[in-house]
Design a protein that fits this description.
Elements (H helix, E strand, L loop, with lengths): L25 H9 L11 E2 L11 H9 L14 H14 L9 H4 E4 L2 H12 L10 E6 L3 H9 L3 E6 L15 H6 E7 L11 H14 L2 E5 L14 H6 L11 E6 H4 L8 E5 L1 H14 L5 H11 L3 H21 L13 E5 L3 H12 L1 E2 L1 E2 L17 E5 L4 H15 L1
Parallel strand pairs: 1-10, 3-4, 3-5, 5-6, 6-7
Antiparallel strand pairs: 2-8, 7-8, 9-12, 11-12
Helix pairs in contact: 2-12, 3-12, 5-6, 5-11, 13-15, 14-15
Bound molecules: pyridoxal-5'-phosphate (PLP).
């Protein structure tokens, strides 16, 4: 018999084939789409593809990091500090009018290194081996933030795309879900205000989602990372709705919400957000995170706590975004199905063919936008609901937005 260690056999590592079920990440696809095009416009490129706010981060960050610099040498606790949890609990209680004393910050909050990683990990938290005798389903609004699909697929679930178009108010139609599918559902992701369309769920909608999660015993993950970038009215949050519901069990059962400082506080580089809600799920999340994650550094936790305690910079942010939407509205004049979103900072424009529009805008205007097809998937037998759209991030100041939107209107006619 051949000695297995002596022959020339050579097998490259095969790895986790679930990764191959995912398409390339949207920005990788965009880079491939635009590779080889050198913008003809003699202008600075305007990057409106990525949702990275360009407003100055609050000075509070640098000040608090400096004041806590002596803590860089310490391993941070995964659950954060009592001060961080208290700042988050106070903010949630204020912002969402939770009943005084109802939110138990020490058992209901975990800091996360940006909501991206927490949203991904939620699938690992929620998806069992089997569900109702079959492959567990993870329900995902369509279009969607790509991480939801990544989490679902890598957790071994079947991602099920729920069409979220103008016909459904840009949110999944919860009443269309069949009992068969709900029995198999391990996790429902919702995003409110939604990325990319900016639609905010109302209290009745969130109440229906919570009731379904409890009836069928799945996790409801509500991504609220755009909740503070609203134009007219503050969107309701899932915890606020849960707090007002009749429940046969715990007040917060089945519900997790995700909030981030990346958009609210122009602090994408701080990598700081939190997950909050159902204490039993949070305890399991802490257990999962103790195997999978590093904690948020103590100076960054202190800076995050300071930001959650300050609303002045957030109000100023909203003022800047309102100016930008006014500039976009004036330049686009209702073309491409423009609709003023409830929240978030994206335009979701129906341009006929999103990929071809993205190429033309880069070629003729040095404006980089994301084709809607890269933010959406096709359910079997159905067209990709994002294919005719582009997503335009209004992250620059109002002058740049006005110029770029005028150029978009001119180039795409
Ligand atoms: C819908 C949505 N959720 C979550 C995130 C993650 O943000 P972060 O990881 O910076 O908190 C983003 C970022 O673009 C997003 O658009």
């Amino acid at each position: 018999m051949a000695n297995p260690a002596s022959g020339p056999a050579h097998h490259p590592a095969s790895g986790n084939d679930r990764l191959d079920r995912l398409s390339d990440y949207p920005f990788t696809r965009l880079a491939a789409l635009l590779a080889g095009i050198t913008p003809r416009a003699n202008a600075e490129p305007t990057i409106m593809s990525i949702g990275e706010p360009q407003h100055a981060p609050p000075a509070l960050i640098a000040e608090t990091l400096a004041a806590n610099a002596h803590l860089w040498g310490k391993y941070p606790p995964l659950a954060g500090t009592p001060d961080f949890r208290a700042a988050v609990g106070d903010w949630l209680t204020r912002r969402f009018a939770l009943p005084a004393g109802s939110f138990d910050a020490d058992n209901m909050v975990l800091p996360v290194a940006g909501t991206r990683e927490a949203l991904f990990l939620t699938a690992l938290l929620a998806v069992p081996e089997r569900r109702a005798g079959g492959t567990p389903a993870v329900l995902i609004p369509n279009p969607f933030y790509a991480v939801y699909e990544g989490g679902a697929v890598l957790a071994g679930a079947e991602p099920v795309f729920l069409s979220s178009t103008a016909a459904t108010g840009f949110l999944p139609d919860l009443d269309a879900l069949t009992p068969d599918l709900l029995e198999r559902t391990a996790l429902l992701y919702l995003c409110t205000p939604s990325n990319p369309q900016g639609a905010a769920a109302d209290a009745a909608y969130l109440g229906r989602a919570i009731a379904l999660a409890r009836r069928y015993g799945f996790v409801l993950a509500v991504d609220e990372c755009y909740s503070e970038i609203y134009l007219d009215r503050p969107p309701v949050g899932a915890l606020q709705v849960a707090a007002a519901m009749e429940t046969g069990g715990g007040l917060w059962d089945n519900v997790l919400v995700f909030h981030s400082l990346s958009k609210r506080s122009n602090a994408a580089g701080l990598r700081s957000g939190f997950v909050a809600g159902d204490p039993a799920l949070i305890a399991r999340f802490a257990r999962l995170r103790s195997y999978a994650n590093a904690g948020t550094p103590l100076p960054a936790l202190a800076a995050a706590a300071a930001l959650w305690r300050d609303e002045a910079h957030v109000e100023e942010n909203r003022r800047l975004y309102r100016d930008k939407f006014a500039a976009a509205e004036a330049a686009l004049g209702g073309r491409f199905g423009y609709r003023r979103p409830d929240g978030g900072f994206f335009l979701w424009l129906d341009v006929g063919d999103g990929e071809s529009a993205a190429r033309r805008l880069w070629d003729e205007g040095a404006i980089r936008v994301l084709p809607g097809a890269y933010l959406s998937g096709s359910a079997p037998g159905q067209p990709n609901p994002g294919a005719s759209f582009i997503r335009v991030a209004l992250v620059h100041d109002a002058d740049v937005v006005a110029r770029a939107c005028a150029a978009i209107a001119r180039i795409l006619g």
